[in-house]
Design a protein that fits this description.
The protein has 219 residues and is mainly beta. The protein has a single domain (14-218), classed as Beta Barrel (Porin). 12% of the residues lie in helices and 54% in strands. The longest helix is centred in the first third of the chain and has 17 residues, at 3-19.
Length: 219
Amino acid sequence: MGRLPSIRLALVLALLPFALRGQETVTLKYFGMTIHPFGDRTAKLQPYKLDDKARFVLNFGGFAGYERYIHKELFAVKIIQGVFTDCAGGLSGVTHVGLRVLLIEHKKHRLMCGIGPAFMYRDSWRRFGDQYEPSGFFNDYHSRALGDIQWKLFPAGFEFEYDAQLCEKLDLSVSFTPGLPLACTFAVGVKYWLNKDFISNEVKLVRPSRKEKKRAGRK
């Protein structure tokens, strides 16, 4: 019972940024490739690999994200939910909550860095029988609804996101997740600004009214 107040406090603190007024975005991205820089020892189990050592593997799925800025355009909190095929062609997913920090901004281009916990789950690779040699990296669990699954909690996952403005409320968005030395992932999509404090750089000409002209003439 003593843990309940602590858990509730943690949830309140985690959700507090989303209750504050600020700039908001929604992101949709296609997740299409995983890169194993040094190859993968389970390459024989990966049907969509582009080379014998599975350095490049195709994935099929995507990510949906919601982002809320908590301090100007410098800091934001983001929630990401992904559903996709893993490298073995099974169903997989990831849930992530993290802090985003603006690194570079130049005209219509922005580079953000994100960090935060990520929870990954997938269809168990034990379905391959003796062909699969578990390394102990993933945890095994049996679910009544989903069957045998494997999961992993990453306390700190990193992401770099590049955004290029297409129009006033729409950006081209590219994400890179460096999971070195095991795997790196790429995703491409769009970011839509639900609420944004736009700064206009247009030069406006102000025409004085008749009353102002008369006042100026009296002086």
